[in-house]
Amino acid sequence: MGVIPHMTPNPDGKFGIDDMAVFTMAWNGRCGTQDLIADLAPCEGSSVPNIWSNPDGKLDVQDLLVFTAMFDWFNANVHTFSLPHPSQPAPPPGDGTIASINCNKYIQTVTREEGGLTILDIFADNLMSLTAAELDIAFNSGDYTVESCRQGGFLTGDIFRTYACETGLRIFLSDLTNKNGVSGSGKLAEVVFIRTDKASYLTVGYDLRNADGAVIEKGSVGAAATILPKEFSLNAACPNPFNNMTKLTFDMPEAGFVNLSIFDLRGRLVASLVNSEVAAGCHAVVWNAADAAAGLYLARLEAPGFTGIRKFILVK
Ligand SMILES: [Ca+2]
Ligand SMILES: [Ca+2]
User: Fold this and answer.
1) Can you say whether the dihedral through the CA atoms of 191, 196, 197, 199 is positive or negative?
2) How far is CA 174 from CA 106, 168, 253, 300, in A?
3) What is the full DSSP assignment across 8-52?
4) What is the pLDDT of residues 166-210, one digit of tens each?
5) How far apart are the CA of 176 and the centre of ligand 2, in A?
6) What is the pLDDT of residue 166?
7) Which domains, and CATH codes, for the chain?
8) Do residues 272 and 261 touch, judged by C-beta distance below 8 A?
9) Minimum-distance ligand to the CA of 53?
10) Which terminal residue of the chain has fewer beta carbons within 10 Å of its beta carbon, N or C?
11) Report for 149-163, 165-179, 296-310: range of highest mean pLDDT
């Protein structure tokens, strides 16, 4: 790739972020000069791929339309892709949080829950001269379905493309209005997911290009899924029957004061495991019954608007 205004095409048989960066650079131009490498239109023929370019020596919206039509055709019809499943483990029970933030030097991800949907916001984090980006959002197939995807507004150009595969979503975006790119921080994209109750991580791979088409950075950053239970519950003790130690788990769709206590069959308090404000999420508490006698016990959970009782057996 040369430097504007004399870029030299070096096609690789694919339409990807390299081509988007070249088109964007050529369109934006430098020193007031656009590069006619992006002069693709007008064209003859009815539809991609059966079109013939007939460059007219200037760049206008027709050229943009031809570029995006070719880009779409290739990525929707020719280039099937898959994204690797995220390698990070699912968050353990008790790690439920309202919102989670992951960031590195370049990209910040924020996941949150809204109206039963999981929303992933992807932010540029203090970047210099960002012009084009590819974002690859990978997830475990079956855990999420992409409901919608919107441009975040940090890049203000007209190219915003998304392509889905079973394990992810690929986003391309570029800025056709700022010839020096965009610097600073801001939202690149917002993805809305329908998710199952299974907890899993997402990862966001990124390839960021500056106004010279150079790679600012390639990498990936995690995005912890926000997993909030849909309703209060006190779950069966595990193991049960047990010898000395058993684990009780309970789910909180919202934060609140919780009392979780163990009683014997006569209703006498044997142990108080939780008596405090508890965050929304899934929680686990271990009862060490080394000092208790063998027999049947009851665990009672009291939370705002909810009472749950579980029976379990201590064997010695
Ligand atoms: Ca290419
Ligand atoms: Ca043209």
Assistant:
1) negative
2) 16, 20, 39, 56
3) -----S--SHHHHHHHHHHHH-BTTB--GGG---SEESSSTTS-E
4) 889 999 999 999 989 999 999 999 999 887 766 567 889 999 999
5) 16
6) 84
7) 17-78 (no CATH), 99-223 (2.60.40.680), 233-314 (2.60.40.2360)
8) yes
9) 2
10) C
11) 296-310
Structure-block tokens of residue 105? 């030097």
Whether 28 and 131 have beta carbons less than 8 Å apart is answered as yes
Residues 6+ apart with CB under 8 A from 21: 131, 132, 174, 209, 213
Ligand of minimum distance to the alpha carbon of 17? 1
pLDDT over 90 at 127, yes or no: yes
Distances (CA, A) of 196 to 193, 200, 217: 10, 10, 33
CA 210 – ligand 1 centroid, Å: 17
Tell me the whole-structure pTM to 2 decimals: 0.71
Closest CA to 120 of 138, 96, 140: 138
- How far does residue 43's CA lie from ligand 2's centre (Å)? 9
222-226, 257-261, 264-268, 283-287: which range is least confident on average?
A: 222-226
Pairing assessment for the beta strands 182-195 and 117-138 based on DSSP bridges: antiparallel
